[in-house]
Design goal:
The complex is a heterodimer. By secondary structure, chain A is mainly α. Chain A has 13 helices and no strands. Chain A has a single domain, classed as ABC transporter involved in vitamin B12 uptake, BtuC (Orthogonal Bundle), CATH 1.10.3470.10. In chain A, 80% of the residues lie in helices and 0% in strands. The chains are: A mainly alpha, B alpha/beta.
C-alpha cells in the first residue's frame, strides 16, 4: 500500500491535489466555527449553489476565465445574506434556502438551454460533486489557491479577536464602538472566497460539510473558543489528507470521500465528548 | 454639562415610533431605572441610546467628554450565547475591543484590566471555566465584567436580573449599587419596580404616560403610585 502511495506521490497532480486540499480544508474550518455559532451553517450550501449558477452563466457566455464572474457574484450574495441579518424582511434561513435553490435551478436551466458541451450531465455532475477537478489542477491554479488561502489565514489571525467578539455578541460590540458591520462584511467576503476555492475540492453540493463538520466535531471536545478553533483546523486538515489518500488508493470520488471521513470523525468526537464531558 | 441629554427623542422600528416625546438628562453618578409595561419600548429606547438603531426623531447629546467607545452594555442573553464554547477570560477580554481599536491583539494593560474586573466581580477563580457551564448569576457577572472593561463611566443594563433566583438577584443588585457608589453611572431597564425605587436615584417611566424624575418624586406621582400598587398585588387603597 505504501509503495502504491509513494508511486502516486511522484505525480505532480497528486501533490497539487494534496496541497490544495489541505489549504482549503484549513481555511474552511477556521471560519466554520464562526458560521456554526452565528447559526449560518447553511450559508456554505447557499453560496456554493450561487457559485454553480455563476459558473453556468460563465459557460454560456463563453468566458475564458470564469473566476472573474463567479467570485464577484458569490461575494455579493454572501454580503447580502450575512448583512441583512435581523433587519431583513425575509429571515436568514429562508433567504439562504431561497437563493440556494433559485441559483441551482437557474444554473441547470441555463446549462441545458445553451450548453454546447457534448456531455452535459457529466459537466453538471462534476460541478456539483467536484469529482475529478482536484486532480486536474494546473500549477497556476495551485499558486492562485495557495495565495488566496494564505490571505484567508492571515486575515483570520489578524482579526481573530474581533471575529470572536462579533460572533459572541454583535450588539455589545456595536455599543462598545466597534464597527461590527465592517467585520461582518469581511467575514462574508472571506466566506465567499473560501466557497469558490472549495468548489474545486468537493463540488458545490458537499461544501457545507467541509465548513461545519470540523467545527461541530471540535465543539464536542473543547469548551474554549481558541481550542475549538485550533482543534477544528487540525481535524479538518487530517480529514482532508486522509480523504484524498483513501480516494487515490481506493479510486473513490475525492469530495465525497473527504466528507465521509469528516462524518466518521464527527461520530468519534461525539462519543468521546459524551463519555469524557470534553477537555478543559 | 450632563453625561447624556435626551431631547424630544422618538424611538422605534421602521419609522414607527414605539415611544416618543422623551426629555431627560443623565448626570455623572446617576442611577436611572427605566420602568414600564411590557411592550412599552424599554429595550428599543436602550438600543437607541446605545446607537444600535437610529432615533426616529429628536437627539441624544453626549457630554462630559463621553466617547462612543466608552459605553458598557449588558444585553439580555441570546440563544447563541447559551451554548457558545468560550472561556470566561476570552469573553471578558472581548470587552476591551472598543479601546484596542484596529490593533489585532490585546496588550498587557488590557489583560491586567481583565484581571482587575474579574476580581471586582468576584469571579477570578472562574477565569478558565467554560461560560456555558456557569450558573445564570455567574454568567451575568461575566457579562458585567466584560461591560466594565469597555467603560469607566457609564453602564447600560437590560434586565440584569431576569431569570435569576431571589438570593442571586439581591447579590446582583448590591453589586450594581456598589459600582454606582464607585462613580459609574447606571442606566438600567427593570421589571422589578420595588428594587427600582429602592436602588435608583432617578426613574424614567415610559408607556402611555411618561414620567421622569427622582425616585422620591416618582413615589409621590400618580403614575408611580399606581404602578407600585399594581406590582405589589393591587391591594393598597388610593
Amino acid at each position: 500500500m505504501f509503495e502504491k502511495l509513494a508511486l502516486y506521490l511522484q505525480y505532480p497532480f497528486v501533490r497539487y491535489a494534496l496541497i490544495v486540499g489541505i489549504l482549503i480544508a484549513l481555511c474552511s474550518s477556521l471560519f466554520g466555527v464562526t458560521l456554526v455559532l452565528k447559526r449560518y451553517s447553511f450559508i456554505g450550501d447557499g453560496l456554493s449553489h450561487v457559485a454553480f449558477g455563476a459558473m453556468a452563466i460563465a459557460a454560456v457566455l463563453n468566458l475564458t476565465n470564469e473566476m472573474l464572474l463567479v467570485l464577484p457574484l458569490t461575494i455579493i450574495s454572501a454580503i447580502l445574506l450575512l448583512r441583512s441579518g435581523r433587519k431583513a424582511k425575509i429571515q436568514g434561513d429562508a433567504a439562504i434556502a431561497m437563493i440556494s435553490v433559485a441559483a441551482l435551478a437557474f444554473g441547470y436551466l441555463l446549462m441545458n438551454l445553451f450548453s454546447a458541451s457534448p456531455n452535459l450531465s457529466g459537466d453538471v455532475c462534476t460541478t456539483l460533486f467536484g469529482s475529478t477537478s482536484i486532480l486536474t489542477l494546473s500549477r497556476r491554479d495551485v499558486w492562485l489557491c495557495a495565495g488566496l488561502s494564505l490571505a484567508v489565514i492571515v486575515i483570520f489571525i489578524l482579526f481573530y479577536n474581533k471575529i470572536f467578539a462579533v460572533t459572541f455578541d454583535e450588539d455589545f460590540s456595536l455599543a462598545a464602538g466597534v464597527n461590527a458591520n465592517h467585520y461582518n462584511l469581511l467575514i462574508a467576503v472571506v466566506i465567499a472566497v473560501i466557497i469558490v476555492l472549495a468548489m474545486n475540492l468537493v463540488g458545490s453540493l458537499l461544501i457545507s460539510a467541509l465548513v461545519i463538520f470540523p467545527a461541530l466535531s471540535a465543539m464536542r471536545l473543547f469548551h474554549h473558543f481558541k481550542k475549538v478553533t485550533i482543534c477544528s483546523a487540525v481535524l479538518s486538515v487530517v480529514c482532508a489528507l486522509l480523504g484524498i489518500l483513501i480516494s487515490i488508493l481506493a479510486g473513490t470520488p475525492v469530495g465525497s470521500t473527504i466528507v465521509a471521513v469528516d462524518v466518521v470523525v464527527f461520530g468519534i468526537c461525539y462519543v468521546v465528548g459524551a463519555v469524557t464531558g470534553g477537555f478543559h | 454639562m450632563a453625561l447624556l441629554t435626551i431631547r424630544d427623542l422618538s424611538a422605534g422600528y421602521d419609522s414607527h415610533a414605539v415611544v416618543s416625546g422623551l426629555n431627560f438628562t443623565v448626570n455623572s453618578g446617576d442611577y436611572l431605572c427605566i420602568v414600564g409595561e411590557n411592550g412599552s419600548g424599554k429595550t428599543t429606547l436602550m438600543k437607541t441610546l446605545l446607537r444600535l438603531q437610529e432615533p426616529i426623531g429628536g437627539e441624544i447629546i453626549m457630554g462630559d467628554g463621553l466617547q462612543k467607545n466608552e459605553i458598557g452594555y449588558l444585553p439580555q442573553q441570546t440563544m447563541v450565547q447559551r451554548d457558545f464554547p468560550a472561556s470566561v477570560r476570552e469573553i471578558v477580554l472581548s470587552g476591551c475591543q472598543g479601546r484596542s481599536g484596529l490593533r489585532p491583539f490585546y496588550n498587557k494593560a488590557e489583560k491586567a484590566l481583565v484581571q482587575e474586573n474579574l476580581k471586582r466581580m468576584g469571579i477570578s477563580d472562574l477565569a478558565d471555566h467554560c461560560y456555558r457551564e456557569l450558573s445564570g448569576g455567574q454568567q451575568q457577572r461575566v457579562l458585567l465584567a466584560r461591560a466594565l472593561c469597555a467603560t469607566r463611566k457609564i453602564l447600560l443594563l437590560d434586565e440584569p436580573v431576569s431569570g435569576l433566583d431571589p438570593k442571586v438577584t439581591a447579590d446582583m443588585y448590591d453589586l450594581i449599587a456598589k459600582l454606582n457608589r464607585e462613580g459609574i453611572t447606571i442606566i438600567m431597564i427593570s421589571h422589578d419596580i420595588e428594587a427600582a425605587v429602592r436602588y435608583a436615584s432617578h426613574i424614567l417611566h415610559i408607556g402611555t404616560t411618561i414620567f421622569y424624575g427622582t425616585k422620591d418624586a416618582y413615589r409621590e406621582s400618580s403614575i408611580g403610585k399606581m404602578f407600585l400598587m399594581q406590582q405589589e398585588g393591587g391591594e393598597a387603597d388610593v
